Amino acid sequence: MRSRGGNKNKEEIMTHYTRNQFTQVMETILGKRAVGRPDQALYEASAVQNFEVGSPRDDGVCRYRYGFVGAANIALGVLCQAPVPAAAHHDLVPAASYAAGVYIVTLTLGATPLAANEMAGGWLHVNDGTGQGQNFEIRSHPAALAAATCAFTLKTPITTAFNVADTLCALTANPYRAVIIHPAPPTAQLVGVPVAAIPAANYGWFQTRGPAAVLTNGVLYIHQQVRPGAVAGSVRHANQELTLSATAPAAEDANGRLVTNSAGANGTIACSGMAGAVPAAGAHDVGHLATIVGKVMRVEVDTDYSLIWLTLE
Question: Which of 176-201 are b and which e, b meaning 16 or more Cβ less than 10 Å from the residue's Cβ?
């Protein structure tokens, strides 16, 4: 006699959650496939798009994101980033005033052209003027020349009207479209580590969470944090550097805290900025400014591949 237990469990789940909610859960675990496309294994590259760009896939403690590689091949185990946002794709003027509820918005581009659907899966946000603060995912758009108009179809309608007199918009591509190996230092959002070599103009999976073998730069320390390295695609120890001055101020600062220098005498702390310049005297935030990639699980030597617990999301 055939058991109906599986169907019964499914029916019980569907009584508590809508079909859309159930689909969202399944797409988070398995990835959101492009319409009519087959599965694509984690260690497989494909010249054909099988999942939506940026789609997540979970496997145990690990998370992966589906991405499209730019013009250069990407090797296994290197840290990667999004393309650099085009400077000309902000402060864009709408072609007309648009009422709330509109799904299609036409903008006049700056000096950078767009290929068809280059921004699909990315975002259009209002960066200034009437309606500022709104952000919408882009469903599709045609190709457009520099300084030409381009109509963007959004996944959700605008919620506050646009005013052609002062509304200004910006375009940001999906970070998993046209992925590159991070230069040193990175120039855009970090997106993860490929779990297989992905040729240029191919699609594949990038790991963002859990244990991954990553190119090592310098000396790492077990269970310590790592940040992007000084070698493209690598990670290095996430050290925080402070310089203690020899100047002896009052014993306590305004908050009653005693600051000492390395010689044991009272001193002030000078903190170098990202460019290496020393800021003016006074209180400074000495928090870490680098992006933390993850923590070291197993240390390997410089230029080898250490096991890193990724925490990019």
Answer: bbbbbbbeeebebbbbbbbbebbeee
Residue range 220-266, pLDDT digits in tens: 999 999 999 999 999 999 976 544 444 444 444 444 444 444 444 44
* 24 or 97: which leads in pLDDT: 97
Quick: pLDDT tens for 18-44: 656 555 555 555 555 554 466 899 999
Domain ranges of the chain: 93-172
Contact 119, 170 (CB under 8 A): no
* Residues found in the chain: 313
Q: Say if CB 198 and CB 294 are below 8 A apart.
A: no
CA-based Rg of the chain, rounded to a whole angstrom?
25
Is the pLDDT at 105 greater than 50? The verdict is yes
Higher pLDDT, 148 or 258: 148
- Encode the chain in three state secondary structure: CCCCHHHHHHHHHHHHCCHHHHHHHHHHHHCCECCCCCCCCCCCCECCCCECCCCEEEECCEEEEEEEECCCCECCCCCEECCCCCCCCCCEEECCCECCCCCEEEEECCCCCECCCCCCCCEEEEEECCCCCCEEEEEECCCECCCCEEEEEECCCCCCCECCCCCEEEEECCCCEEEEECCCCCCCCEEEEECCCECCCCEEEEEEEEEEEEEECCCCCCCCEEEECCCCCCEEECCCCCEECCCCCCCCCCCCCCCECCCCCECCEECCCCCCCCCCCCCCCCCCCCCCCEEEEECCCCCCEEEEEEECC
CA-nearest of 78, 76, 82, 89 to 115 is 89
Predicted TM-score of the model (pTM): 0.77
pLDDT reported for residue 303: 98
Tell me if the bond preceding 175 is cis, omega within 30° of 0.
no
